[in-house]
Amino acid sequence: MRRRADASQSDGFEAFAGALQATFPARDDAPLALTLLRLLSAGRPVTAAALAQTAERKEGEVAGRVSSWPNVERDPTGRVVGFSGLTLRSTPHQFTVGDRQLHAWCAWDTLFLPALLRQTADVRSLCPVTGSVVELVVAPDGVTSARPADLHVSFPSLAATDTDDITGSFCCHVFFLAGADAARTWRETRAEDSVFDVDAAFELGRRVVAALLEPGSSTVMEVSR
């Protein structure tokens, strides 16, 4: 059974969602961005040649487009190992799809990535306030379970967010907070931050990535695993 979000719980929810769309520069080529993300979810670094072949586009065009996007993680040989919140590098946010243990840049990424990948994910992270383990099952259409059930997500002030360094200015401040007391403590010590319950945070992600999943991006190639 899917949990439901109450998007009315916070003033400015719509405005916040709109502002967060700017953290996705790759939305200018949604088909290519989604193809790259889904290739990466197979758990292997992605070459320009593999991306071009899967997207059925010229390698030079694809390489140029990806090079124009900020926040693309690469290995020493230039292969992509991290993109749009999903990474092959270890982080505190484990993101398991099928038998593939991947990672996410931040807690919020784990809530919208299942919709982009069209797959359910098991998520494991830590609350920075209590130190307790947080576990979720996130389907493309919602959070199906969460432990603890009373779970919140922190967001930094967008005024301080640099979209050219999203991991260093935004993601490093986005965590799961285990329980109302942890959320209250976070608010008291970080007055400029926003805190949403996990279902509202999922809804926030759904609205932000909706443009990537509109009919216009249905030309994304299916990736075989």
Physical arrangement of strands within the biggest beta sheet: 1-2-3-5-4-6-7-8
| Count of β-strands | 11
Global morphology: globular
Total individual domains: 1
Low-pLDDT stretches: 1-11, 215-225
CATH class: Alpha Beta
State the separation between the terminal residues, measured CA to CA.
28 Å
Mean pLDDT: 88
**What order do the SSEs take from the amino end to the carboxyl end, as H and E?**
HHHHEEEEEHEEEEHEHEH
CATH architecture: 2-Layer Sandwich
Q: In DSSP terms, counting alpha (H) and pi (I) runs of 4 or more, how many helices?
A: 8
Helix fraction? Answer: 25-40%
Structural class: alpha+beta
Descriptive labels:
alpha+beta; 225 residues; disordered N terminus; 8 helices; 3-stranded antiparallel beta sheet
